[in-house]
Specification:
The chain is of the alpha/beta class. It has helices at about 30-35, 80-85, 95-105, 120-135, 150-165, 180, and strands at about 15-20, 45-50, 50, 65, 140-145, 170-175, 185-190, 195.
Length: about 200
């Protein structure tokens, strides 16, 4: 009874940074959810390279997703939250420890590893979401308003994360209205209007 997204065609190059803009209710989050595998399109296709993603679950797409509403497990510690998606991967305990430590350092939460998440601020919880999304070596990272609830330290950490993704040639798709992130973007899609290159691209 409700059409969330219609007549939508988008191509994102490998290693490109893409921002989705548009008013509330235009389909931005639906687009992100379909790319990540949380929702299936009723029509059309989503391709990663030549591979059709129809029926491929989120955990097998190689996508890191940072949710706007944190999606944090409140009964776990910071470390356990970051470790959760890594448990499904075949790796040694030492390798997992190294990845978790690197993720927490990147987002400035190394000293909070054993803290209960319910003691943290909203900005710190968002940074846990960032750490959790980035350390499965994702081919694609999807960020839905990642800095909506960040404090000043978290904002600085996010800038560092975005620069790191660029260095690692990771493809990035995000919804944001913050100029601090848009300055890193290669291409902007205003949903329902056009695709426009930015930053001289």
């Amino acid at each position: 009874d409700f059409t969330a997204l219609k007549t939508f065609d988008l191509e994102i190059a490998d290693g490109e940074f893409m921002a989705l803009l548009g008013p509330s209710g235009c389909g931005k989050s639906t687009t992100m959810n379909m790319i990540a595998g949380m929702e299936e399109p009723t029509e059309g296709r989503i391709l990663f390279g030549e591979r059709d993603m129809a029926g491929v679950p989120m955990g097998r797409r190689g996508v890191g997703f940072v949710f706007q509403n944190y999606a944090i497990f409140t009964h776990m510690t910071v470390r356990q939250n970051v470790a959760y998606p890594l448990k499904t991967r075949k790796m040694s305990g030492a390798e997992m420890d190294r990845k978790i430590a690197g993720a927490l350092e990147l987002v400035g939460l190394s000293d909070y590893a054993n803290r209960s998440v319910i003691t943290l601020s909203g900005g710190q919880m968002q940074r846990i979401g960032l750490a959790r999304a980035l350390y499965g070596k994702p081919r694609l990272v999807v960020l839905d308003e990642p800095n909506a609830n960040l404090d000043s330290e978290g904002e600085a950490n996010l800038q560092q994360v975005v620069r790191r993704l660029r260095q690692d040639h990771v493809t990035l798709v995000l919804v944001t209205h913050r100029p601090s992130l848009l300055e890193h973007i290669d291409k902007v899609m205003v949903i329902g209007l056009m695709i426009a290159p930015v930053n001289g691209g």
